[in-house]
Amino acid sequence: MGNPKTGIGRCLGTFGELLQGALPIERREFLVTLPITEGSTAEFRTVHELKGVRVSPPYKVKSRRLAEELMRLYNLEANGELHIESELDEGKGCASSSADMAATARAIQSAFGIRIPRHTLARTMSAIEPSDGVMYEGIVSFHQREGIVHSRLGTLPSLTIVALDEGGRAETTELCRDRGFHSASRLAEYERLLLELGRAVKRRDLPSVGDVATRSAVLNQDILPKEHLELFLDLRARYDALGVVATHSGTCLGLLVDPRSLRHPDVLPKLVDELLAHDCGGVRVYRTYGALGTKTTTERRIEGAVW
């Protein structure tokens, strides 16, 4: 039977989307990723005595389905154990399921010494559920239903996100059945915003990136409203933050802050304290994935903490 094969894979999540909408041609839906430093890690090990793939935790059914489909596609030994550990809360809009699945595919690649093209992985994942474009590096515009990249926008310097979880849990499959992108004017606006965002990322124009993200969060109120959006718009203005970012199919709002700003050491704890004072949900600080640079003392103290 040979020695067991073992492989490990990792994939980062995304804090919602810088922009989510649909384009005028065929009303084709898209989202733009905002990668963060938290993610999922998967380990796959062949076990000859098993039949099929056994996953832990057992509820990670989508990752098990992906593993079994990849085994079929690549004619691999379809018996093994899949273990997943994630730093991403589920049902919040941070691509937990997509990160789990992409990490699973990378673990299988590692175990069997094969290469799974990202476009193949993207399409296979999206056949299981509408997926984020987390299998691609950097910021991408991605057709989540079809699993196809629309465009690769590039990368940005790492930013801080002061995030609020309004509570509850959103299920991607349910939310993506009908996003309600109806009017021609709305579709034209999404197309314009995507072009603006592409130019802003290329120029590393952070204020313009924040403007697009904020407008997308406002437009999403017609689809999956966030109770505290007005509070976040007010905080953006008062603290001169870059913008508001939403997990469009989730339960979170975030305020984008540039850690290179001279005001940043004072802004970050004040924002956290103000959100805590409103007693409006769980507060957490994230870092987007980019040119990390040196973290401030304040960031090292509170990044990743949950209140």
How would you characterize the overall build of this protein?
It is a single chain. The protein is of the alpha+beta class and 307 residues long. Helix content is 36%, strand content 27%. Helix 5 (184-203) packs antiparallel against helix 6 (206-219). The protein starts with 5 loop residues before the first strand and ends in a 5-residue tail after the last helix. Residues 292-307 have low confidence and may be disordered.
Count of individual domains: 2
**CATH level 1 name of the largest domain:** Alpha Beta
User: What is the overall number of helices?
Assistant: 9
Largest sheet: number of strands, sense, barrel closure: 6 strands, mixed
Strand content: 25-35%
Shape, principal axes of CA atoms:
globular
If you consult CATH, what is the topology of the largest domain? Alpha-Beta Plaits
Structural class: alpha+beta
The overall strand count is: 10
- Computed CA radius of gyration, to the nearest angstrom: 20 Å
Unreliable stretches covering 5 or more consecutive residues? 292-307
Helix content: 25-40%
Output the CATH homologous superfamily of the largest domain: GHMP kinase, C-terminal domain
Series of secondary-structure elements, N-terminal to C-terminal: EEEHEHHEEEHHHHEEHEH
Give me the CATH architecture of the largest domain, please.
2-Layer Sandwich
pLDDT averaged over residues: 90
Structure described in brief:
By secondary structure, this protein is of the alpha+beta class. It is built from nine helices and ten strands.
